[in-house]
Structure formats: C-alpha cells, structure tokens
Amino acid sequence: MMEAELSFAGREAGRPTRHALWALALVFGILCFVLSAVTPGSAISVALIGAGAVFTGAGAVLGVRKTARGRTTPLASADVASVLDGDPFPSVLCSDDLVVRYANPAARRDLCADPGGSLVDCLRERLAHPAALLQRLSDSTAKTGSAAEDVVLGDSAVRVAARAAGPGLTLWRIEEVVAAPSGDAGVAALSVGRRGAILAMNGSARVLLGRRVRALSDLVGRDTVDNGAVHEIATADGRQRIEFRCLSAGPGRTEIALLPAPEAGTMPSTVFETLPIALVTVARDGAILAANREARSLLALDCHEGARLGTLLEGLGRPIAEWIADAAEGRGLNRPEFLRLSRAHRETFLQVALTRTSGGDLLAVMTDATELKTLEAQFVQSQKMQAIGQLAGGVAHDFNNLLTAISGHCDLLLLRHFRGDPAYDDLLQINQNANRAAALVGQLLAFSRKQSMKPELLDLRETLSDLTHLLNRLVGERISLELRHEPALPAIRGDQRQLEQVMMNLVVNARDAMPDGGRILVETERLTLDSPLKRDRAEVEPGDYVVVKVTDTGTGIAPDKVRKVFEPFYTTKRSGEGTGLGLSTVYGIVKQTGGFIFLDSELGVGTTFRLIFPAQSGVTNAAAVPARPAARAQAGPPVTGGVVLLVEDESPVRAFAARGLRLKGFTVLEAENGECALEMLDDPGLEIDLIVSDMIMPGRDGPTWVREARKARPDVGVIFMSGYATDALGASAGDMSNVSFLQKPFSLNKLAEVVQDGLAEASALRTTKSEDPDADGASGIRTGG
C-alpha cells in the first residue's frame, strides 16, 4: 500500500520532459537566430528570425511559470512520506475534488482515511457538516495559498488547515486544539448553527444521547427551540424530559445545554424566575422555600432563607399560619385574600391566592393591589360625599322653609320694636342666628354643588383688592398678608360673592395654621397648557387658565390628612372652633365654577392651595362686566299696590309672606297648593297682577299649575320661591317667560323688593303689548334673590 501511495507523488514530483520544455524552446530560438545569420537568402533569413523569436519567448514564459511554481509548492518535488509520516496530527494530501491521494498514519488511524476515498466522508464522524467547511477553505486556499478555521466541538475544538501543495493538490491538516476529556465532561452541550444544524456535541452530549445527532429536528422535530423549553427526547437510557437552555455564541451559532427537566407538574426554574408574576413557594409551616424575581422585589427580600410568610403579611383577621394550614389541607384554595405588607415603608396591599403543588407545598400567587385598594377607598369616599351632597340638597328645601318662617316672623316683630326696647336685642339675636343658619345651609349646598350662582365676568385683581381690607382684619397683626398680581390677567366667569367666600376660608385656615405668626402670600398668574395636566385623578384640558395661589408659612398638613381636608365635617380644630365645612365649601364652589383645586403641603414648611379657573378667551380685564344687569334696572321704578296671589304649602311661610306683603301695601290672596289656586283663578272676574308660588308642593308643583293658569291669563307675572338652587329648577321652568326666582330663606325687605320688581315688569309688558300686539315677554328665569 505504501508503494501505491507514493507512486502518485512520484509521478507528480518527477516529469523532466514537461519541466524542461522551456530550456528546449530557448535552444531552438538561439539556433534559429544563428542560422539566419549564415543563410545567404533574405527570405529564409527573415523566417528563421521570426521562428527564433517565437521559441525564445515561449521558453521564457515557461521558465517563469516553473520558477513561480517552484516557490509555492516545494512539497511537490519532496519525499511526501518523510515529511508527513512524522506529524502527530492527521495530514492528508488531496486533489482539488477532495479525493485522498495520501494519508499519514495519524489520518489513517483517527479519520480512517484511505487513498481514493473522500475527505468529506472521513470528517463526517468529527464534524456535522464538513462539506461546506472544506469548500470554504478550498476557495480561500486558491486565492491566498493557505487557510485555516477552528471548529468548536462542545468542550473541545478542532483546527482544520489547508495549504497549496502543487498543481491540483492541497495538503489538509486536522489539529486537535483542546483535547476532549474522556468519559463524562459535565453538562451536555450542543453547538447549533443556522437552520438547526448541530455543528458539534461535547462528550457529555454524546454520552447522554448515545449517538451522533446532526440536526435539532432529530431531537425536537423542528429547527428551533425556545430557551427554557422542556421536551421529551430519545436518549441512551430511553425517553427523558430535557430542559433546553440556549445561549447565543455569535452570529448564526447557539450553544444549547441539555439539563434534566423538573418533575411533571412543577415549573422549570427559568420560567419560575422570569415570569412577570410574583410567585412564592411556601412550606406547610409557612416557611418560604423559593421566591422568583418579581416576588423578591414585591416583598423587599434580598434573600428568602429563614423568611416566613406570616412575618411579612398581616391583616387577614387571623394568624397567617392558620390560613396556610387550612390551604395545605385543601380549604380555601385559589381564593384571593387582601393582605397588608407589614415591613413596607409605605402602605402596600397584596392580593394573595394559595394553591397546592404536586409535592405537597403551597404556591402563593401575589399581585400588588395597593392602587386597587386606594381606588376602592376613594370610590367609597366619593360615594359618601355624594350621599352627603344629596342629603344636603334634600334637607336644604325643608330647612330653608323653617329658616324663612323664623327670620320672616322675626322681621315682623322687629317692625314693632325699636332700638332701646328690652325685646329688641333678643329679636336681633334670633335674626342674626337665623342668618348664620342660612349661611350654613349655603355651605352644604356649595359642597354638593347645588348652590345658586350669579355668574359674571370677574377681574380677579379687582375682586381680591376689594377684599384686602377685610382679609387684613381677619389675619390680625402678627401675620402679614401680601398680594401679587400678574399684569394683563384674563377675566374668569364666576360668582363674586362665592369667590370671596373661597378666599376668606383659605386665608382664615392659613391664619389658624400659624399660631405664632407668619406670612400669607396670595398671587395670581396666567397659565397656558399645551398638553393635559394630570394630577390627583383630575385632568386639566389644554387651554388658557387663571391660577390663584394661597401660600402660608404655617405648620403644614400631615400626608395622611391631605386627602381628608376636603371631606365635609372633617376638622383638626377643637370643638366649637370649626365646623369642618370650610374646605369642603371651597371645593364645591371651585368645582361648580368649572375650576380645579390642588393642595401641596409639607410639615413644618407650609401649605399652598392652587386654584385653577378657565380663562375667558378674548376677554380682557376692562371687559369684565356683569353678565346680567339687575332686575330693578330692567323693570324701571318700583311699583306699589297690586293684587298678588300667594301659593305656598308651608303655613308658617305663607303666613309670614302674606302679612309682610300686606304691610307693604299689596293685596294678597292665599292658596295652600296649586289646585286651590286654579279654583280661585276659574273666577273670570278675579283680577291678578302677580303670582308668587312655591316650586315644590304636593300634587301639582309650581311650574305645572302656572302653565295651566297661563292658558287663560298669559300675561300674568310669576315669582317662584324655593329652598333648592336655581340651576336645579331651570329645566322645569326655563321655557317660561316673565318669570323671576326668589331663593329661600329671604327677608321681608327682599320679598317686597322682588314683588315690586315683578309688578313693574308685568306692568311694562302690558303697556308694550297694548302698543305692539306682536311683542312677547323675555324668556328664562331671572334670579331675584
């Protein structure tokens, strides 16, 4: 065999005729030149010169090519056996088609390489896809003369090197860079290339699988596998559940570790750790066995060793250990419980559900429910405040009727007593306290946003400047009050009386927060929002706004009390010093105006209330004028006398109003409800100049019976009275013309003034109609009080 192997090399190394052609060509060329010089005929001489040139040129070209080949392929003429047989690594001499021409002893031993065989087949047992590798190295060798590439084989590496060894010959050398250890090499690993081709397997993988695997599809049925996925595959010991751990090893290459998978019914460790849900494995005695990343973050656990669930959570109403013991026995599983995290620096609530694992332990699934509990508390609070608002609106009607009767009859008594009379001061006290009670009802209505409003365009600079004198008297000498205004401040729309009440409440609260004196700063500024402002569950839409800030240097408000300050009846003052309605009133007025109120406070530093009102576009301070002129200015001079039909179901109110109007010179007809009033109006001979009617009565309410009466008496004027707000009644009487509204409670003078205005307007309307039969009265409800 050795002679056969060397014969090919000998033929390639010894071809004297072919390699001496260049010398013969030069000899023929020189001979032609010599003969041309001694030949007498010119034609023959020219021919010999041409032939000499051809032979000389051909010889030179052949000589150059031989010299170049001699430099790059010295092995072609050497004794191949003496050079390669001593190499400890497999070395193979192959033709361009990768057919083995000679193999050294190491190649015959390790690769089973025989002359005439294919180098690709020899490397299949070592490399997954050798054809592509050898073709790539052959192309590089043809360009540069040599090439090499390392191939990673799990826990070892092989370097395949190629070198040009003569015309049509390449010397291949396979060198073991890192020797593969015998036996088990630790973790089974695969080197996977593109399209799932397995490039290499380490020793442990070969032991585990018991065979050479060339593609992932042979293991899992497809070309890709997910990191952490568990597959049942065929191994040397039968089918086993294997977890695939994937790690990128560069472009187009992935290293995959094959690990024993957890028992069926348990969770792979990678999935347990990376799930975006907090999971905790708990023993039957409450000890934490394992916690994934989300759970450690939620429970603020650096290490779960020695930790117990009962020491971390509280608020179940019974020991956590009993709850866990019940769950271990199968009671109360998968039923979420809301618990509080005991070690958190802030109040944190968790929703926890327990389920049993196949091993008998418990798996706790946890969710941060802090925001949910906060929203629940806010919803309960809003429901409570809404209920109080409805109560305030409902009570206001009956309460205002009582106050009307009390203050009205007190006014009648005051008409018969003069200053200096022993009973005068007592009557005055009754009247003043009735007015205070009326203001208290007004605060309740403001909180419930059902207070009557008289909106107008306001210049806040003027409003606050006019209020400065009163505010200075409220704060006292130990507290300085400072006002700052931004020039060119836009106007806002609101009720001036209510906004003054807001400022007084805020300034008084700031004063009470500074018992040792301090400074209150009231400033206004313009605010333009290009994007929504989201804060405290409120969203301020983009646009132009006017901001009023009231800042004090007082004691501040504790964080746990900030959310309670706007609740009705909540106060930190001592009994008798406050009702707890101040800030709830402020909140209701600001909201009713369409604005927002925000609070910033820091203990020991001070508090800032920030009021945000919508600016009126295109309206400057100079244009801030009342939205509606007074009723008296429309109606002309007051009118005395006239017949008034008074309809009121509350006897004390009806008695006071009737007596008071009669004392003012009016003729008063009384009816206790709408049905009685319609019976009186059935008399065509009865002349009525004005109707004064309560809005809410048993049977037919005010607007209903007045519409019926106006079918026969369309020109009669109407004044509606009610303890409810004007806005709440606009829908029922807003389409009626020549109508005024009188808010309860009212004084005798206010009642007389509104009745005089109503009679004057009715008289003016009748005059207008007599001159122009097509004229009609103005529609809408006019506020008379």
Write up what this structure looks like.
The termini are far apart. The chain folds into six domains: 71 residues; 102 residues, Beta-Lactamase; 73 residues; 100 residues, Beta-Lactamase, CATH 3.30.450.20; 168 residues, Histidine kinase-like ATPase, C-terminal domain (Heat Shock Protein 90), CATH 3.30.565; 153 residues, Response regulator (Rossmann fold), CATH 3.40.50. α23 runs parallel beside α24. Strands 12-11-16-15-14-13 form a six-stranded antiparallel β-sheet. It has a six-stranded parallel β-sheet with strand order 27-26-28-29-30-31, with helices on both faces. A five-stranded antiparallel β-sheet has the order 2-1-5-4-3, with helices on both faces. It contains 26 helices and 31 strands. The chain is an alpha+beta fold. It is elongated and about 165 Å long. β21 and β22 form a beta hairpin. Helix content is 41%, strand content 24%. Pfam families: HATPase_c, HisKA, PAS_8, Response_reg. It comes from Roseivivax jejudonensis. It catalyses: ATP + protein L-histidine = ADP + protein N-phospho-L-histidine.
